[in-house]
Amino acid sequence: MILKNKIYWFICLLLISGQQVLAQTATDSSQVKDLYYQALNEKARGDIDLAQTTLRKLLKLDDSNDAAYFELARLELEDKNLGDAAIHAKKATTLKPDNEWYWVLLADIYKRMEDFNSLPPIFDQLIRIKPEKKEYFYDRAYALFLNNELDKSLQAYHEIEQKFGKDDNIIIARQEIYLKQKQPKKAIEEVTSIIEKEPDSTKGYLLLANLYLKLNKPKEAIKVLDEGHARIPGDPYISLSKADAYHNLKDEEKSTRELRMAFASERMDFEGKMRLLISLMSDPKSNEMAPIVRDLANTLTISYPTDARAFALYGDILAQQKQLKEAREQYLKAIDINSRVNTIWEQLLQIELSLGMQKEALAHAYKASALFPQQPLTQFFSGHAFFMEKKYTDARSCFEAALNYVDEKNTPLLTQVYSSLGDTYHALDMFAESDQAYEEALAIDSNNVGTLNNYAYYLSLRKTNLEAAAKMSRKSNELEPNNPTFQDTYAWVLFQQGNYAEALKWIEKAITNSGEKSFALLEHYGDILFKLGDIEKAVSKWKEAKATGETTGENVELLTKKIDAKKYIE
């Protein structure tokens, strides 16, 4: 009886514990599922770090969850944590080797890591899973090429040809392999086969000519292109390739002739001509080509007089060539045709500000800021146009709009926006906000010389935090020596600190480096001399300041009082 009871309770215990295990398993499974969907929601919200943490928590509960490893690897790839991404993607492929997308992710990670040695086996797996997908065969062949396994790469392309048929891409790939193997004759034979197959197609002639140019044989390239033009008269792309070949032979007259022929051809559409001009602009030899590029851009505006893009591109080319007034005229024409392109307004405002055309910039700023309230760069330039004309409330609205919409990753623009807000808030007597804006700018870029200088100068005017002002002003002068504006600021900070002898040295440096008579510099010079007891010379400098031509405003009135009283007046 005792034995029976013991057996009975033992069986009960087993049953109970079994129920607990089953209950625990069900709970774990439910928790894993909840964590997985939680991570996906966190990812959708953009909480990448939180999603990764959630997935790692999931994998502690279930380290055989291939989908979690896959999602974690994707997040780590996005986060540029390539080492961990590779480990977790590989784990996903191990757990579920027939999942195509797990292998695709692992391949993407290795590509990003430039681990070309690991790629061919991955494409072997993808070919196993999807033998009908041609791109995986091409990826494998190219991976072998990148890994310098050239014979294997040739064999892989041969297999593609056997399985899927002949393809010009295979010929081009084999040409690259033969060049790398220093077998130029075989490379030429490969590309020649394209011409033999399609003698009335431009492609073969262009590829073979380009190959000859790579081999430094421009005369052979021209010979091929002449054959091409004989078969396809007036082809603009053959003319372009000829222009390149003649340039290699330093025959610029013939090169220009071919370039003009290509551009004049009706077979090249508007977009093609735009792309050609943009490529010529970005060419390292663009300075040599400047007159031709300018002429071609002008031709484009004549051919397409109702397309704003033609005038905008002509403006871009003129701006690149430092012909700012002429560029401005083209941007104005572009805006007359289509006023809804914010980048044209940005270029126009930037040029007008740089040319000192403040009234014109102001008029355009009103239009641009209203048309593009969410474009940070348009608002930024509009803000400067308002600021230069002392429309500080309008400037504030523009700079604050720019701040609201600027991409936080665009740190140069973000710094400039904060710095400009610092200037604007100061002009509006919003001193606490001004200081905060400057601090934000320096938090992003502690070496921004304009911010350092302006912040220091405005603190000196308010006689506030002069020690910090001196430190910032010194730094701006160290970063950009011999800048008269920065030297003047440091002189004025020293003046406010009562260090007149040192201030004199810096104001004299500023005047020497300025190269022209400046109202502000000469007035400050006189103020410093007065504090040093040289009254006669101080008055002389004040008179020089007045003679510079600035005849209105509070500063002139104050200066006149100093001269009349022969004393420094704040």
From TrEMBL:
The keyword Signal applies. It comes from the Bacteria. TPR repeats lie at residues 308-341, 415-448. The keyword Transcription regulation does not apply. Transmembrane segments: none annotated. InterPro entries: TPR-like_helical_dom_sf, TPR_rpt. Residues 1-23 form the signal peptide. This is Tetratricopeptide repeat protein.
